[in-house]
Amino acid sequence: MELKEKHCWAEIDIDAIKYNYNLIKETFGRPFYTVVKADAYGHGAKYLSKIYSELDTFGLCVSQFGEAMELRNAGITKPILILGYTDPRRAYDLFKNNLTQTVFSTEYASQLNNNALYPVDCHIKLDTGMGRLGFDVWADKERAHNEIRNLLNFRNLRFTGMFSHFSVADSTGEKELIHTQKQLELFNETARMMDSWGFNLKVIHGQNSAGIARKLNGCYNTMRAGVILYGQQPSDEVIMPQIKPAMKLKTIVTHIKTIHAGQSVGYGMRFTAEADTKVATIASGYADGIPRLLARTGHTVQINGKYYPIIGSVCMDQMMIDITGSDDIKMGDEVIVIDGRGENSYDRVAEKTFTVNYEVMCSVTRRVPRVYMENGTIKHIEYGM
User: Fewest CB atoms within 10 A around its CB: which of 234, 283, 291, 307?
Assistant: First the structure.
């Protein structure tokens, strides 16, 4: 099995994915959702959901109805939890496709209930300090508790679970530790109250990747593993050192030439040679998900085990690399633009472009084929275009 053509592709290590999954499973001995929203953080949700299903994942988490239906249409039968908003008029589609919907306010619950012809499975979302979606037990606990208790009046909604989300569990600063502890306390208190009100919740989850890495404990019986599944750390402060990065962004050398002193390279004449310079053009750019800002950061790519800097601007489909002094690079050679670890890792790219590794991975666009490798062999190629 080979790529139809080599321009830019993402190489996904299935061995690393399985290793990370089993590490989480063996370390914590607790069921967990595998989070595949945002196309599995850029790794390809359809194929990885099949892998997670084979590993007997507890369920899958997505952000929106469209993501859930992409998995159902791909033959995925495992439970799917939609973490975000779904149009309440989709109530029958939620029921028909056995999807679990997050309920985060009385207004939303009312609309979903009124549109439901059959009971819709739901998880209740608490806002324990994230300030995003959820019944706001942080700002007004008494009001939030009253609103949650009244959910029992919505007969077309079947509440099977409850969850919250940590906002600063990936930080170990004093202020952040206090905030996370309060989130835990609010969550545990509300869970106990809900049990006394008659909610028969089977699934209670709060630990995201950072919470898992920190082994934060509450009244949870389930977890949500996200970025750690893909071998990336929640932050520099909170890590699981054993996990293995799963994705490399690769391309090829398409042209090599020497420019002379005074010649410029790329848009805006951002690089002008001070001496004769050997330049390689490679077939990837910002339309593939490579930050345009990266060219100004001294970022290097890897060719034949050595690192070479980007020069000029990152173009839409191409980049130029200074390979002066190298005589072993030729047209067609593979280039690792972003790696799991090392000088050109997702963490380093994120640091240089003032963002997080999550965004860098999620920015890999759909036109980039995902090539799934296992035991050094291509097992599957997923084309987005």
Answer: 307
30 alpha carbon, distance to own chain's centre: 21
CATH at residue 183: 3.20.20.10
Please identify which residue in the block is written with the tokens 């191409």. Answer: 318
Q: Which two tokens stand for residue 244?
A: 């293995």
Last residue of a domain, one of 184, 204, 230: 230
Residues 223 and 252 in one domain: no
Residue 241 lies in a domain: no
Task: Render pLDDT for 63-87 as a digit per residue (tens, 0 to 9).
Answer: 999 999 999 999 999 999 999 999 9
Task: Provide the residue type at 35 as one letter.
Answer: V
* pLDDT at position 385 over 70: no
Lookup: tokens for 128: 């324990």
* Positive or negative torsion for Cα 221, 227, 229, 234: negative
Number of domains in the chain: 2
Over residues 339-368, the mean pLDDT reads 93
Q: What CATH number does residue 356 fall under? A: 2.40.37.10
Active site residue 267: yes
Q: Is 37 a catalytic residue?
A: yes
* Active-site option among 37, 46, 125, 250: 37
Residue 375 has a CB neighbour count (10 Å cut-off) of 7
- Beta-carbon count within 10 A of 221 CB: 12
Q: HEC string of 111-146? A: HHHHHCCCCEEEEEEEECCCCCCCEECCCCHHHHHH
Catalytic residue, from 92, 118, 267, 383: name it.
267
